[in-house]
Give the backbone structure.
Amino acid sequence: MQIRVLGPLEIEAHGRPFTPTAAKLRQLLALLALHGGEVVSSRALIEELWGTTPPETPQQTLQTYILHLRRRIGDALGVNKTDVAKGVLVTQHTGYSLRIAPEDVDAVGYERLAKRGRQAMDLGEYEAAAEILHGALGMWRGPALVDVHTGQPLAAHVNRLEESRLGALEDRIDAELWLGRHRIVLSELAELTAQYPMNERLCAQFMIAQYRSGRGWRALEIFWKLRSTMVEELGLEPSISIQRLQRAILNSDENLQHAHTSGELLSVVAS
């Protein structure tokens, strides 16, 4: 079984799609898949499906959904025997477990690649890091579970994956900057800073890329736009480190042209 959650929910068995259309079954299957091989308690599943307003008999209703899901799994696997589907979606003492291999879920493959990319960054292997992280990010087809209604347990997984995605993206851009590819990432950073206008790391990367491309004036514009947004939205000034980056640009600090990542550069210009 192949389950894809990095974008719209997609499920295949033996190469045949069988993604449920019913909203509750999609929620249920997505949460079980993200805990592949682990027991998810009935309490957590009930919270996911109904939050603080469960039906009068939540355990019985959950069991009904599990029965429907087993039938769908059996049909997808091309078998009619209930015990086969029960061997995939297993009843445990406290809840249920979806018996799948970790590599059956795309999020697991992504997280393994992202971890390898971070390790390459830590070792200073920027070419490898850029390539690995590019591959990890290429597994995404849109926001995680974009077409699935999420309760609190599933939303926590989605938020974690989206934060990981953003971190991997920032790391990949740092690797690109170290490799001197500042012009290549300019358009990407323009889109990202528009999407995340108060993300200081992305703004710092955009400032560095613009400065190295001979557009110091544009780098300063990015800083002032960040400051204006933060003051207006949060009543806060940008961090000291990015203020020092702005001053370094004003002073044409020679460190700005060296092959540092954004985090290293912020430390250098702050010293």
In short: The chain has a mean pLDDT of 92. The CA atoms of residues 183 and 214 lie 10 Å apart. The longest helix spans residues 152-178.
